[in-house]
Amino acid sequence: MLLKMSSSSGTGSVNLACLLFIFLLVLSANVAFSGTIVKYLPGFVGELPFTLETGYVTVGSSEMFYYFIESEGNPKEDPLLLWYSGGPGCSAFNGLIYEIGPLEFNISDYEGGLPSLSYYPYSWTKTASILFVDAPVGTGFSYSTTAEGWAVSDTSTGVQVYEFLKKWLIDHPQYLKLELFVGADSYSGISATLAIQNILDGNGYGREPHLNLKGYILGCPRIDGQIQENSKIIYAHRMALISDELYKATKNACNSDYYGVTSSDAACYENLQLIKKCIKDINKNDILEPKCTFASPDPVEESTRRSLRGNSADFIKSPVTIPEKWCHNFNYSLSYVWANDQSVQAALNVSQKTVRDWKRCNKSLDYDYDVTSVIDYHLNFTTKGLQALIYNGDHDFTIPNVGTQQWIKELDLTIVNDWRPWLVDGQVAGYTIKYSENGYRLTYATVKGAGHSPQEYKRRECYDMFDRFIHWYPL
């Protein structure tokens, strides 16, 4: 309508120019103030060697906190990856510091106090811009301004992530034309799938802005509850955690269905109890590592900030002081100390008094698990020409690779590159298989020696995997 008015006279053209100038001025103001560039972080020596922006995006009554790191490669052309962690309730900081980001804690020299940070070279930000979001609300530094807003679910998280992404891109229009990928791991495989469907629906309905979705990346994702739980029995047998005899007896008694069994199914139930005894002391995240307590240092007493809650049998020690007693959870404990420090929160521009006790994984979410399977959504994706990367650690007992491979087979895709090893520096980093159907391509990969999530255990290998996939090279 403004264009028609502007064509009527020279004055109209001047008015149009003024209106366009005002529009661009407002747009640039939105971009400038949608977040804050962070150049220094407590614990890191000197200026950050990458561009970090932090801030909030309002979604309904929720304030969604994010960390955005611009690509260290070619930010004008490299893809944009939206990433959030599983749980549900695990902060995206988990992905940034332990998995795919350009920072890591200096664990070996830690002697108490504020942990130090160092630059990690094999970051996914070397080849893509990454938008880390604390989702759903109640995760990390994301919070609600109303009592009702704290209640979330699989379905609402999918909507929340979609709305967050749209609003962030409106404030950052320079990234709208870049290839967009959605990434998540673990339990967030459910809600990330729903978020992808919301993007496809929004684009189909012509909602603005149009998102240039090219694909998705899911690490050790929960996709179907029944398949996942059943696969644990198969995996336990394959990894010699249970005997051939017990596996065969359980398989026969349960008719290969171990999900939701009650004591009324006597023979099946009893065999499952025997299996439970065999695996109860196994670390589900990595079957080769010691089983440890959930890491959470006491935020009150400074003397206990250097230790962790737990009994003497499960006490977590640093990898330097007592290497043979080291537990993986020691790594996590440093995040609690760092993220709850007032100087850190000030540097990150966290709204004060909104999150009194930051947790790496918030286990007290008001969360409704309202979706048990999203396989049908992935069947729908096979008609949309998307590119997918799905991967598992081969020592992950939380979401075993055999379950992931099973639900992928249910998509009934055509194999274009059959099972083979993929290499990093001439060494086998895992195994991969590639499928294709009507323009849809799915690459599945195992990561050798990795647990849950793989990119935490094998950061270098997972970087190479991501770099090849995101730039359309075969593994």
TrEMBL record:
Pfam families: Peptidase_S10
Taxonomy, superkingdom: Eukaryota
Recorded family membership: Belongs to the peptidase S10 family.
Protein known as: Serine carboxypeptidase-like 18
Organism: Hevea brasiliensis (Para rubber tree)
